[in-house]
Please model this.
Amino acid sequence: MLVKNHVAGGIERVQLYNNEYNESWIQKLIHDNADILPISEIEPGFAPAISIGRELRTNAGFIDNMLISPDGYITLVETKLWRNPQARREVVGQILDYAKELSKWTFSDLDTRIRNLDQSSEGIVAMIQKQAGYPDIEEHTLIDNINRNLRRGRILLLIVGDGIRESVEEMVEYLSQTPQLHFTLSLVELQVYKLGDAEGSLLVLPQVITRTREITRAVVRIEGNYATGLKLNIDTDLGIQAENMPKVLSGRTTLNALDYFEQLLQSTDAFTVDFVKSIIAESQQMGLLIEWNTASFGLQFADPSGTGVRLSILTIDKKGQIRLGYAEKQLIALNIPSEINQRFCTDTAYIFTGLEPSLEKAGSWNRSVAISELIPQYDKFMKRLEIYLQELSMTRSTC
Model:
């Protein structure tokens, strides 16, 4: 029911299988309005997604929609209106074939195909740079990122239509055919409604399907090599399906997390990577949430009263540098006295040599702290963090 000016009016569900609202219509809708896809909900590092082409030709067929983020992360979209189980199986296999085909490409291959779609196109880099807010993207960095993601098959695959139903066994069978690729597969349902008598006005509701027997996402991880044997790990919403799965792997590992740890290892060493993983594990035990980005992750305190507001505690970037989260707006939203945050900042600053509270930003340090500095002070820091979280919880419980 649509309520406008306190008057209720009817809305009509549009069936996505007639001549007007068909798969081609969905493709154009996505091409013209890429932000209609809930990409940030699925893999935040792949957003914002910029549409760069429709019906992109490959040896495996034509990709319905292709999108790329300003950081060079690729999203493929296959639109499908589900009429029979056979079509469902075919479209999953089809989009996997696209991912396998793209993993053989370079940036130059992709750029050439995009230019062939539109002879007036200036290419991928120019298209992304022209998007509002992204004029200063470094060309060589974008090209390097796209090349790396193509080579590794690090691609977000979206099947978009009017719903999909598959058992975990069938989905794992499809996914296990491409163990060398590190992709995320998500299924997005579009619900479309006509808004009363408003001519040409539609309400489009995208939804990531999350019913128990539907796979909304699966991350395939491969360990080892062909000489010593491969270990295939498929992490889905229903748990982990794997052969020879090591005990150290548990829970969901997003593509952002995979990227982060690879970059952290390049900047530091294996010991630091393991230490950061231990920080994550202990923080989660303390009730903190992990917010992943491709170049960093953040520890966040979720309001226990259920408002949905998250208070940023700290971030650790890909070089192993730690900064306190600047959370003035969240403190105000949660009605938490700033003195609690400032005391935490001051007390933790004095744990480290040469560190002080920032004069410019209350509640922040005047510089970042390296993981190597945290290691000898870790127990002291975590004890103070635990006190801080208790203070936050007590404050919210009295609101």
